[in-house]
């Protein structure tokens, strides 16, 4: 049997344990202080450097097209976020923080309809749902409804099959480009040959690109309008005449 001698009360074993515990507490305090400083520093950084998009559909990402529009800004743009307290959409909030950090010319302002019930009426007569946006620059503005951000696609063969897609960036960037610009590309749709109507989704996409759509009847003009950037002939049911061909 081995002989075991217990340490004397108040001996070196307890002193070593005390010193080790004090050292651990000191190290923990230093690490905690470092973490506090790092968090304070990180909170001061723009969202583009601290928030990363790991969503499957890249809901928070900003594309190069948006960066081109934003980097060219020379005027101040305000994005009003119309939302009741506690009803903020986190996806929209993260996206807006990206825009806010991209340029000093962009400012995001939250407007609570409970506090300012008539604010949105200055900009639109539409029903304004929570998480709708208003983009403003000077005397130009564009309203972006919640349904313009979360697009609904209904399967016509079954009204029970409804899917949604997110187009927050497309809507916001288009609105920014619209409110800071004065001249827009003009597209003329040829008429007089039984042309079909443009599909609604196609027309909406053209207008989202801030392209103005006008109609053109060739027999009524002597030349193609000088401001025409494009002439579209969409699904005619009859041929154009030789004179119209020559004008084109």
Characterise the protein shown here.
- It is a single chain.
- This protein is an alpha/beta fold.
- The N and C termini lie far apart (112 Å).
- The strands form three sheets. Strands 2-1-3-4 form a four-stranded mixed sheet. Strands 8-7-9 form a three-stranded parallel sheet, with no helix packed on it.
- The chain contains eight helices and nine strands.
- β3 and β4 form a beta hairpin.
Helix-strand string: HHHEHEEEHEEHEHEEH
Sheet having the most strands = 4 strands, mixed
Distance between the ends: 112 Å
Mean pLDDT: 82
Question: What attributes characterize this protein structure?
Answer:
alpha/beta, disordered N terminus, 19% strand, 248 residues, 4-stranded mixed beta sheet
């Amino acid at each position: 049997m081995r002989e075991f001698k217990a340490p004397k009360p108040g001996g070196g074993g307890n002193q070593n344990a005390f010193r080790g515990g004090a050292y651990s507490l000191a190290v923990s305090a230093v690490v905690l202080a470092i973490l506090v400083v790092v968090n304070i520093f990180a909170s001061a950084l723009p969202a583009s450097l601290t928030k990363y998009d790991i969503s499957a559909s890249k809901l928070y990402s900003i594309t190069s097209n948006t960066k081109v529009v934003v980097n060219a800004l020379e005027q101040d743009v305000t994005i009003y976020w119309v939302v009741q307290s506690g009803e903020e959409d986190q996806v929209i909030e993260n996206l807006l923080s990206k825009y806010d950090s991209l340029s000093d010319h962009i400012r995001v302002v939250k407007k609570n309809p409970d506090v300012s019930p008539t604010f949105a009426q200055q900009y639109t007569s539409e029903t304004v749902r929570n998480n709708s946006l208003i983009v403003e620059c000077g005397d130009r503005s564009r309203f972006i409804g919640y349904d313009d951000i979360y697009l609904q696609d209904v399967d016509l063969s079954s009204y029970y099959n409804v899917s949604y897609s997110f187009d927050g960036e497309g809507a916001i960037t288009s609105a920014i480009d619209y409110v800071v610009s004065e001249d827009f590309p003009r597209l003329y749709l040829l008429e007089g040959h039984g042309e079909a109507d443009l599909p609604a989704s196609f027309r909406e996409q053209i207008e989202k690109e801030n392209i103005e759509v006008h109609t053109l009847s060739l027999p009524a003009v002597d030349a193609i309008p000088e401001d025409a950037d494009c002439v579209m002939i969409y699904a005619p049911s009859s041929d154009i005449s030789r004179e119209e061909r020559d004008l084109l």
